[in-house]
Structures are given as C-alpha cells and as structure tokens.
Amino acid sequence: MNLLHNKIFIIGGSVLIGIGIIAGSTFLISSRTQNYNTVKVERKDITEKIKATGKVEALDNVSLAFDKSGSVSHVNVKVGDSVNAGGTLGALSSDELYASLEGAQADLKAEQEKLGQLQSGSGNTSTELVTAQHKLYDSVQGGLTTADDSVRNKVDQFFTDPDTMNPKILFAFNDYDLKEKINGERLVVEETLTKWREMNTKLSLNSISNSDAEQARGYLTTIKNFLDDVSRAVNNFEPNNTLSQTTIDKYKSDVAAARANINATLSNITNAEESLRGTSASGSVQETRVSKAQAAVDAILSQINHTIIRAPFSGIVTKAEPKVGEYFAAGTPAFGIMTKDAFKVEIQIPEVDLAKISVGNKAAITLDAYGTGNVFDAHVSAIDPAETVTNGVGTYKATLLFDKADNKIYSGMTADAEVSTHISNQALVVPSRAIIRRGNDTFVLVQNGKEYLEKKITTGIMNTNADTEILSGLNEGDLIASFGNN
C-alpha cells in the first residue's frame, strides 16, 4: 500500500512539473512575442565606414643639418618664421672657398677663350695645321722620289730587265730560294712605285690626310723589305772574272745607302703624320680642358652649397639652433621646418578591415578641440604595406590628408576619423538588431499574419547607424521583427 502510494505521488509530481514547464515555456514565448517591434524593409543609401583615432601632424616635418663643420656666418630665420622653398635658413663661413672659386672661374674663362679662337680659326693652331699639312705633303711626295732612286739607281744596276714582267738579279750566290724571292719582289716593287706615283698626282696641300700617310708608309714598307733581302744577296756576292771586289763593295755601299734613305723617309712620314694628327686633335683637346675647368668650378660650388642650409619646401620654422660665430658640427640638427597649411592624420586599421579600405576613400574628421559639430573633409592618401604589431594585434597604418587648408587645424590635435569604404545606393536595408545569427546561418523573423516565420538572408555592408544591407532573402516592404532598441 505504501509502495503504491509512493508511485502515485511520484507520477503525480512529474505531471505537475511537466505542466509547469509547458506553462513557463508558453509564458516565455508569449512574452517574447509581445516585445517584438515590427519594422519595414526599406530602400535607401547605406555607407560602410571604419572608425579610428589619430593625431594631426604636418604633412612634411624635417630636421636639417650642415653637411660639414664650420663657423656659422649668418642665420636668416627664427622659430615661427615662414619660409619659401629654396630659401636660405643659415650658412657657415666659406671665404676660402669663394676665393678658390674666383681662381677656378678665371681658369675656365681662359680655356673657353682658347677654344673660341680654335673654333674661329684665329688661334695659333690654324698656322700649326697648315705647317703640319705642308710637312706631310712634302714627306709623301719626297718619299716617292727617294724610293724611286733607291730602287732604280742603287739596286737595278745589278738586275736585268728590272722594270719588265721578268726581272732577274745578276751574279750567282749560294741561295736559290732567296734569288727567286728577290726576283718576285722586284716585280711587286715596280707595281708599288706605279701606285704611289698615281696617288701623288691626286694629292694637294689642302687634301693631304693621315690616310695618305698610312698608304705611303705601306709602300715604303714593301720597298724596305725588298731592300733587306737584296742586302743579304749582295753580301753573298763573290768576286770572279766578271765581278770585281771593288764592284761588289760599291753595290754594298749603294744598297746600304738605299736602306738608310728608306728608313729616314719612313720616319719623316710617321713624324709628319703624328704632327698633323696632334694639330687636328687640338680642338678636341681644348674642349677637354674646358670640361676639366668647368668641373673644377662645379666642385667648388658644390662645397659652397654644403655650407648652406636651404628650405626643402615652403613652411614654418620649428627649430633654429645655430648662432652667428659659433662652431657647428656636421650632422648636428640645426633647423626644423614643417608645412604650414598641409596636415595629415595617421590611423591604424585592423587586419580584418584592411580589405575594405583603399587609397582615395573619403573620410570625415572631427577634432576634439572643436567637438563633433565641426567636420573636416579628408581622403586616404596612403596605406602602409607593412604590418605594425601593437600588444599582439596586427594593424596597418593609413594616412589621411585634409582636402583643404583650414586655420583651425594645428599639429598635435586629437582627431576622430570615419573613413567611408563602400557606398550602396538604394539598397534594401534593415536595422542590424533585427538580424539573428545561429551558427553559419543568418535570418530574420518575417511577419506572416499573427505569426513570425524564420527567413534566411544574405547580408552586405553595415553602417555606423546600425543598419545592414540585405543582398538576398527579403523584398521591399516586408515586415520583420526588431528586437529591443539595439
């Protein structure tokens, strides 16, 4: 009996608990349903924005130092002065450099005047050129006469038919190959003299050139080689019934004189050629001297420039350390300058937002000094490709430039920026608080009579007013549940 009583009690208790849970669930569902606010899906423009904070900085802010050490000769500015790009801020003493510059400029002027004389033909080189041309002309013309005399008068006396197609050296000597070589060379020499004679008939004092000299030296070399072989043959001549020792000695003497004359002629033509080449090149030599003198002037001017600090851009002087008369070491910060009306704000973009932002995006900046009522237009001018890690969080620096100058903006002010990264015009928009996310699914509750049905959706961008773009799943005018005020 007790056991049955206990079972009835347990069953009864379970039923009561179940009824209580059902009642409670019904109450919760009813309560949640009563708290729904119904909103309508609308079309309107929506802008995605990234918010960040930064500091106002001058667009350009540099510290300048002297490139060399020295005594300060003058300081032209003080802190707060406005300067134009290229303006002199200060300089070191450079009296010795200016003295050297005057000497170098005088040297340059002298070399330029010499070059002008050469180019106009009024300089000494004009006379030197004519003299060199005369010398080369005479040596080439006279060289033919010497060569002709050396062959016809001093060698042909022991040849038969020397100027025919079958010249032969007289007298026997113990070198058959040399004899045949000399006979062949005599034929070539005859052709050489003929060519030289033809060349000389075309030469004139004004047309003579180094190429003519080279041709004449080639003719002389052919004749010289012939005479060298003839000398070897004559030295092998032996006296006999038809050839006396006296005659042999005369042949030796004549050949030696011929060789000496040819060598002297070669030397004369070479010297005359070099003289003409040197005189002809004097113009280019003088141009080189002018270039060297100009380089010397430029080098001194460069040294003088290193004693002067000039403003790299127009702006405001933020530092002016040197004092006239004091010694200032190279590399020591001397002057500071920043842009006057151009300012920037650098902000850090989280990695998750990096893909959203691009150079050229518009931005709205407010400055703490003036409150949210004063908005300054700006744009993204640069995004650093390198990551900056702060407290273990990776961010990327973006630089914002103000669109126009404003005398309210000062370096160092705290700035709040909203960067507009994407705009969708006339998009379907719902309050972000109406969106429910469960796992990987996103949906809203769409009103259907007195009920609300789940509807899966695809979302786009979200603005700072807690509105979200709907890409798919809803239509304009649909009524959906919105939960609370946020």
Question: What can you tell me about this protein's structure?
Answer:
This protein is an alpha+beta fold and 486 residues long. The protein folds into four domains: 2-34; 48-56 and 342-482, Efflux pump adaptor protein, beta barrel domain (Elongation Factor Tu (Ef-tu), domain 3); 64-92 and 307-338, OB fold (Dihydrolipoamide Acetyltransferase, E2P) (Beta Barrel); 124-286, Four Helix Bundle (Hemerythrin (Met), subunit A). The protein has helices at residues 2-35, 95-120, 124-152, 176-202, 210-234, 245-280, 282-305; strands spanning 37-40, 42-58, 61-65, 70-75, 82-83, 88-92, 159-160, 168-169, 308-310, 315-320, 327-328, 333-338, 343-350, 362-367, 375-383, 388-390, 393-402, 414-431, 436-438, 441-448, 451-456, 458-462, 467-472, 479-482. The strands form six sheets. It has a six-stranded antiparallel β-barrel. The protein has a four-stranded antiparallel sheet with strand order 3-12-10-5, with no helix packed on it. A four-stranded antiparallel sheet has the order 9-6-4-11, with no helix packed on it. Strand 22 (458-462) and strand 23 form a beta hairpin. It is elongated and about 155 Å long. Mean pLDDT is 85; it is low at 1-34.
